[in-house]
Design goal:
It is a single chain. The protein has four helices and no strands. With about 100 residues, it is mainly alpha-helical. Helix 1 packs antiparallel against helix 2, helix 2 runs antiparallel to helix 3 and helix 3 packs antiparallel against helix 4. It starts with a helix and ends with a helix. The model has no long low-confidence stretch (mean pLDDT about 95).
Length: about 100
C-alpha cells in the first residue's frame, strides 16, 4: 500500500465512486461530474506513476488541490460528514503527492 500508484488508484476509486453514489442518491449532476473528473485525474496520475512517465505526481497533486478547494470550504461551512471526509481524502493526497513531487524536484 506504500506504492504511490496504488494510492492514486485508491483515491480515484473513492472520488469517482463517491460522485456516482451522489448521483444515484440525489440525481446530482455536479456530484457525478466532479467525482468522475477528480477520479480520472487521480487515475491518470497513478497510471503515469506506474509507467514511470512524467507528470504523474503532478496530476495526482492537481486532483488533490481541486478536491481540497471544493471540499474544505464546504466542510468548514456545513460541518457535515461527507465534506469532512472528502477534505481528509484531499489532505492525504496533498501530503502524499506533495512530498513525492517535492522529492523529485
Amino acid at each position: 500500500m506504500d506504492d504511490p500508484s496504488t494510492q492514486a488508484f485508491l483515491l480515484a476509486a473513492l472520488t469517482a465512486g463517491g460522485g456516482i453514489t451522489g448521483y444515484a442518491r440525489s440525481g446530482s449532476i455536479p456530484s457525478i461530474a466532479a467525482g468522475v473528473s477528480v477520479g480520472a485525474l487521480y487515475g491518470l496520475g497513478g497510471l503515469r506513476v506506474r509507467n514511470r512517465q512524467a507528470y504523474g505526481y503532478e496530476l495526482a497533486l492537481a486532483a488533490s488541490i481541486l478536491l481540497a478547494g471544493s471540499s474544505v470550504p464546504r466542510a468548514i461551512k456545513t460541518m457535515k460528514p461527507l465534506p469532512i471526509g472528502l477534505s481528509v481524502v484531499a489532505a492525504f493526497g496533498l501530503y502524499r503527492f506533495g512530498m513525492l513531487w517535492k522529492g523529485q524536484n
